[in-house]
């Protein structure tokens, strides 16, 4: 029987099999989880007790920041490392979150679109800092072909180091894919509702369906500006849920190889042909990994 840390059978965390894992662990501090996003409001009171490290001064946002990039990053961080008494999910508050903003100017922070070159640099920085798992949920601004090649090379670098990258599939409501969601090191994530249906805005596609996974993100609340909370959903929230699940699995089973862990979480099958991935069952992934060890 799965222990239930979240009593509502309709909660996103219950519907993705996370309740049992959250009852077992809050995550290990020696597991470094990278956040490629905007600057995080690290002084938010709901981060009390969290282990948050920033690679640069500009990776931290002021308490009163309310631009798109800071709000998005802070909400994503809240899904991961807000304290367990918070109304934000706080899936893995015991891990060490390493933040790296990809926005180099106020205009970029307001638009929320990251240049491919900035994304590539952030991925390399986090990989070289020793992270094992990266959460990424942002839109790529249009750029030159060599910018996308730089992202490919950065993902190759992460893959060689055994880093798992979890990326939001996007909210364009299209059948599509890009240099990120097609990469072998990436688990693309689609948002589902509480009835098991994909969100109508979620981007889907062959590479997403083949190697990705879904997560229920309906009705989530996470951290916002001025110490407040705010609604948070879509594929960004779904990706953070999957990242949190992988962080707990790796905390419980730290010797698991990255490929083995990714296959368990995505229920990967080489025969899968749908453009839609299945909804994650984190507890089932845990059972599969335990069985493999026996």
Task: Summarize the structure in short.
Helices cover 36% and strands 16% of the residues. The protein is of the alpha/beta class. The longest helix is centred in the C-terminal third of the chain and has 19 residues, at 234-252.
Annotate the secondary structure layout.
Elements: H1 12-15, H2 19-24, E1 32-37, E2 51-54, H3 68-81, E3 96-101, H4 106-111, E4 113-114, H5 116-128, E5 133-136, E6 139-140, H6 145-160, E7 164-168, E8 186-192, H7 206-211, E9 213-216, E10 221-223, E11 229-231, H8 234-252, H9 258-266, H10 282-293
Structure overview:
The chain is of the alpha/beta class and 294 residues long. It has one domain: Rossmann fold. The protein is built from ten helices and eleven strands. The chain has helices at residues 12-15, 19-24, 68-81, 106-111, 116-128, 145-160, 206-211, 234-252, 258-266, 282-293; strands at residues 32-37, 51-54, 96-101, 113-114, 133-136, 139-140, 164-168, 186-192, 213-216, 221-223, 229-231. The strands form three sheets. Strands 2-3-1-5-7-8-9 form a seven-stranded parallel sheet, with helices on both faces. Helix 3 (68-81) links the parallel strand 2 and strand 3 (96-101). The longest helix is centred in the C-terminal third of the chain and has 19 residues, at 234-252. The two termini are 19 Å apart. The model is unreliable at 1-7 (pLDDT under 50).
């Amino acid at each position: 029987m799965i222990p239930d840390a979240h009593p509502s059978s309709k909660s996103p965390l219950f519907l993705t099999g996370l309740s049992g894992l959250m009852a077992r662990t809050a995550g290990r501090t020696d597991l470094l989880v990278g956040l490629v996003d905007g600057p995080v409001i690290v002084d938010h009171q709901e981060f009390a007790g969290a282990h948050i490290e920033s690679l640069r001064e500009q990776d931290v946002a002021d308490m009163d920041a309310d631009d798109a990039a800071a709000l998005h990053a802070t909400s994503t961080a809240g899904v991961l490392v807000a304290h367990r008494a918070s109304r934000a999910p706080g899936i893995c508050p015991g891990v060490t979150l390493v933040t790296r903003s990809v926005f180099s100017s106020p205009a970029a922070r307001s638009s929320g679109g990251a240049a491919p070159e900035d994304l590539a640099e952030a991925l390399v920085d986090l990989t070289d800092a020793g992270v094992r798992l990266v959460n990424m949920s942002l839109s790529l601004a249009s750029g030159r072909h060599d910018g996308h090649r730089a992202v490919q090379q950065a993902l190759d670098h992460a893959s060689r180091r055994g880093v798992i990258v979890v990326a939001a599939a996007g909210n364009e409501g299209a059948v599509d894919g890009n240099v990120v969601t097609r990469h072998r090191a990436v688990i693309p994530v689609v948002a589902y509702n509480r009835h098991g249906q994909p969100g109508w805005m979620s981007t889907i596609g062959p590479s997403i369906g083949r190697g990705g996974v879904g997560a229920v993100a309906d009705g989530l609340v996470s951290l916002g500006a001025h110490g407040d909370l705010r609604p948070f959903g879509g594929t960004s929230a779904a990706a953070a849920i999957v990242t949190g699940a992988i962080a707990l699995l790796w905390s419980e089973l730290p010797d698991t190889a990255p490929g083995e862990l990714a296959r368990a979480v995505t229920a990967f099958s080489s025969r899968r042909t749908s453009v839609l991935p299945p909804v994650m069952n984190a507890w089932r992934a845990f059972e599969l990994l335990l069985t493999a060890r026996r």
